Amino acid sequence: MAKLLTALLTLLLLPYFGANAQSSFEEAFLVQNQDTIHGYIKSASDLELSKVIQFKTDLNSEAVREFYPGEVTAFYFKATGFYYASVKAEILKGSSKVYHHRFAKLLLSGFTSLYKLQLPEEEQSIVTLRNNTFLYILQKGTTYYTLGLYETMDGSYAIKNKRYAGMMRAAFSDCELLSLDLNQLNFDDKSMMKAVAAYNACMDPAVATTYYTYKAKAVIKHGVELSFAKLYLPKNPNNISAQGYSAGYFWDIIQPDASRKYSTKFGVTYMYYQLDRNSPNAEFKKEAVHYLRLPLAIQYNLKDPIVSETVPFFNIGFTAQITTNARYRDYIPLPSIGAGMYSKRFRFAALLENDGFKFSNPKLISLSVGMRLD
What we know:
Oligomer: single chain
Largest sheet: 11 strands, antiparallel
Order of helices and strands: HEEHEEEEEEEEEEHHEEEEEEEEE
Helix content: 10-25%
Number of strands: 21
Number of helices: 4
Mean pLDDT: 84
Distance between the termini: 28 Å
Structural class: mainly beta
Number of domains: 2
């Protein structure tokens, strides 16, 4: 059995090692010392791209060079138009204040430019605002203003510090005609861009403000998964026991909404299933069945799966199960409910699958561990 699982995993991994290294790089351009350099940059989340990018001039080459903020002025992807620039950000955490150079995504340009910077979990100031995982950076000439919304605890109360309003008030102080109630300004893309555009128009009406609208793409996590399953029969007069071992590949497609709380998880799995009938009247005492399984589930993530290393989740879905053994029927579908957790590159999960929709029907309980290869 161990040899069979090893062979199956090897077959599953071959396409990954052969093709993933190339497919993860997208055609892009670097801006360095006023020169534009054509090449390919490894596709990643805004958070991962904020600290370092991996670049190569030839898609088929194994030579990869890393660039850090400050080493290049900017970079952008050809297909999506995503544009990132090196900015100086003020990072506040409690009473500490540090400055870092980061790559931030451009939202708006004109007399001033507005960027959005995703923060790693250890730099976030979250108490009640679960989606407050970012900062805005306002560039005015050579000066960078960090615009943030911070939360602190005062006893049992969460205190919100709209520091972004004060920073914008200071940056916009040279436009006397500007009428904005910054204290009531919402901390979101639409509101911030509207306020900055109004300031740009006030300072230089002849220069149009350019908005950078990006079509968000789903983020895909994928990898190999091993699982062990046990049959549970609420009523078992024939004293049947069964267990199975599975190996397969999974894809977790994270929807590109603001919270990224929902994702779609599906996979392709081979299961080796062993049945043991202890009834004296059973025609077959022991039997092995081979299944091809196609699980599909809607997953709810309790934390942002892009910026968090530990992400608890639960899901609900169906599993199609096909066998070439004529004595066993195919199950399309098996309703399922499960829960688990991502921990860095590992995925741990428990799943309950029901044979049909009656609660008294047989159930398959499985535990799995997976490893992301994206």
